[in-house]
C-alpha cells in the first residue's frame, strides 16, 4: 500500500480577492472578498492527496500560535495525519498574503517557521513508501539537507519527488541539480524549469535536465504539461476552464500526478489525471477550496475521452 510522507512548509494564506487595481506603493486599493485558508505548497498537496483517497502524513514545523493550530486543525479535518508536525515555541508560524484575481496573483510571505525546519531535526519515520518535498528554495533550513533525506528514503526503498517552488532571489543555484540525482519525479512550473535548467524553452530544458533517474514533469499553466519518456515528448493540454483562483493549482497538479504515478498508471495517463486535478482546483477559492476526489477526476477523464 502507498503511504506518502510530505516534508515541508505549513502556513495559512490570507487571500484578498478581486482587486479594483493592482496595489502600488503609496496607494490603497479595495478588494471584493477576503478569506483565511490553508496555504503552503506542501500542505495543499497533502490535502489534495487525502482528497484523492491517499494515506498521507505531513512533517513540518509551526510555532505554538493560533496560525499553527489553524493549519493543523485544517489538515486533520481534511484527513491528513499531523502527528509528525513539530510545534516549536521559539518561532512564529509563517503567513502568505495572496492578492489575487481570476487572471493571476501576487504573493507576500513571512517565512517564520518555514525557513526554520532543518534536516537534522527530521528523523524519517518508518512505514512510508514515498517522500515528497516542496518549496526547496523557501525552506532555507531544509535545503542543504534535502539530498540526504532523499538518499535515506531511497536506501529504504521508497520513491521520491520534489516540487522546487520559485526562488524569490532568482539565483536558483546548482545544488538542486545534485539533489535531483536522488529525485524520481521533479515537478517545476515553467519559470522554475527555466531557472533550474538555465534554458527557456521547456522541451529543451527537459532534455537538459535528463540525468538517467529523474522524470521531470513541466507544469505549463493553461497550456497543460509535458514530460520526456526517454527521448519521446509526452504532453497533455490543460482543462478548458475559466479560473476563479489559480492559487495552488500546481500543488493540486502534484497531488494528482503522484496519485496516478504511484498507482502505476502510464505516463500519459498520469499527466492527464494531473491536469484534471490542477484544472479543477482553479474552480474554487484558495488552494484547497475545490480539489477533485478520485471519482470526480475519473468522471472528468471519461467526459474528455482521455481514458
Ligand atoms: N488557467 C488554467 N486553465 C486550466 N488549467 C490550469 C490553469 N492554470 C493552471 N492550470 C492547471 O494547473 C497546472 C499547474 O499550474 P501552473 O503551471 O500554473 O503551476 P504552478 O505555477 O506551480 O501553480 P501554483 O504555484 O499556483 O500552485 C497546469 O499544468 C494546469 O494543468
Ligand atoms: Mg508551484
Name given to the CATH homologous superfamily: Ribokinase
Based on Cα principal axes, name the global outline. globular
Neighbour order of strands in the largest sheet: 4-1-9-10-11-12-13-14
Structural classification? alpha/beta
Largest sheet entry: 8 strands, mixed
List low-pLDDT spans. none
Q: What is the share of helical residues?
A: 25-40%
- List the total number of helices: 10
Number of strands: 14
Q: Strand content of the residues, in percent?
A: 15-25%
CATH architecture: 3-Layer(aba) Sandwich
Domain module count: 1
Polypeptide structure, described:
It is a single chain. This protein has a single domain, classed as Ribokinase (UDP-N-acetylmuramoyl-L-alanine:D-glutamate ligase, 3-Layer(aba) Sandwich), CATH 3.40.1190. Helix content is 32%, strand content 23%. The chain has helices spanning 41-51, 66-78, 140-143, 146-155, 175-179, 190-197, 202-209, 249-262, 267-281, 294-303, and strands at 3-7, 12-19, 31-38, 55-59, 61-63, 86-88, 95-100, 105-110, 130-134, 159-163, 185-186, 215-219, 225-229, 232-236. The strands form three sheets. An eight-stranded mixed β-sheet has the order 4-1-9-10-11-12-13-14, with helices on both faces. The protein has a four-stranded mixed β-sheet with strand order 3-2-7-8. The radius of gyration is 18 Å and the shape is globular. The model has no long low-confidence stretch (mean pLDDT 95). Residues 189, 219-222, 224-225, 238-239, 241, 243, 246-251, 253, 275, 278-279, 282 line the site of adenosine-5'-triphosphate (ATP).
Brief digest:
The chain has 307 residues and is an alpha/beta fold.
